[in-house]
Amino acid sequence: MTEYPPPGRYEQTTAYDAVRPPPGAYGYGAPEPSPSPNVAPPRDQGGHVAPQGAPTAPKPRTGKDDKDDKKERPCRTLFTRNIAFEVNSDLVKQNFERFGEIKTFFDLVAKRGIVFVTYYDSRAAEAAKNQLNGMHYNGRAIDIHYSLPREEDQQHRCDREKNQGTLFILLKQASQPLTDEVIRNFFSEFGDIKSIRKYKDQRNTRFLEFYDSRACLLAHDRVDGTKFMGGTWDLKFAWDL
Predict the structure, then answer these.
(1) Which pLDDT does position 230 carry in this prediction?
(2) Neighbours of 57 (CB within 10 A)
(3) Contacts of 81 (CB under 8 A, 6+ apart)
(4) Cα atoms in the 13 Å half-sphere on the side-chain side of 25
(5) Cβ 115 vs Cβ 108: under 8 Å
(6) Which end of the chain is flanked by fewer CB atoms within 10 Å, N or C?
């Protein structure tokens, strides 16, 4: 009998806990009042939160900085802060649009000097972070970090609304073992594949991750329940690793 992975087994298990920024991060040197413990951190419409301990502005790059950046878990949503309040948010959005199609742009520039930018393609998010981090608007350097889904969301099964790129795939009653090469050849028509990962020792199951979340949706809707190699595809949405 095929064993399905329990919720959270292959999810991202560490989400950033949001805290308020250091004094002056939202203004021009004037600290904000100390927050109440019950004050909710900034979130976008998808529930993504600001990373913990993000600096107010980028510091000169060092080897240690590069190592710290690698600890962040890449994802499709970017949290951008330290934007001057008077900056036109349309200009900010245009700069992010240069790297790929944006799914949502949650604008809090005028109120808090921050935006959440969510892409469909994880490569677009990575390129935007690498190239725009430290860019100046009105003399202020913006600070960009990845923003993971809420930890409480990741304790439940993923669904098509979560903008993830991963499918848990099972080929039931196949006439022969399912190989990575067969999977790649079959599913690549829907979009570029980022990774294929095994689940325990079950030969006809895999975690299949696309770069673009729209490819994930298309593959699910076109393939789930169809016949292949004498068996039937069973596809479920999963959290990106």
Answers:
(1) 93
(2) 14
(3) 21, 25, 50, 54, 56, 113, 114, 142, 143
(4) 18
(5) yes
(6) N
Mean pLDDT confidence for 73-78 = 93
The distance of Cα 148 from the centroid of its chain, to the nearest Å, equals 6
Question: What distance in Å separates the CA atoms of residue 207 and residue 198, rounded to the nearest whole number?
Answer: 6
Mean pLDDT for the stretch of residues 53-80: 62
Radius of gyration of the chain (CA): 20
Q: How many residues does the chain have?
A: 241
Maximum CA pair distance of the chain?
69
Provide the 3-class DSSP secondary structure of residue 20.
coil
Rounded Cα distance between 109 and 93, Å, is: 11
d(CA 195, CA 187): 12
Rounded Cα gap, residues 210 and 213, in angstroms: 7
CA-CA distance, 66 to 24, in Å (whole number)? Answer: 25
Distances (CA, A) of 3 to 79, 160, 168, 171: 36, 21, 11, 13
| CA distances from residue 145 to 55, 72, 126, 172, 239 in whole angstroms, order as listed | 10, 8, 10, 41, 20
Which residues, at least 6 apart from 74, have a Cβ–Cβ distance to it below 8 Å? 122, 125, 126, 146
Global pTM? 0.74
Q: Which of 12, 42, 7 is nearest to 164 (CA)?
A: 12
The beta strand positions in the chain, using DSSP E, are 77-81, 102-108, 114-119, 136-137, 140-141, 143-146, 166-172, 193-198, 205-210, 227-228, 231-238
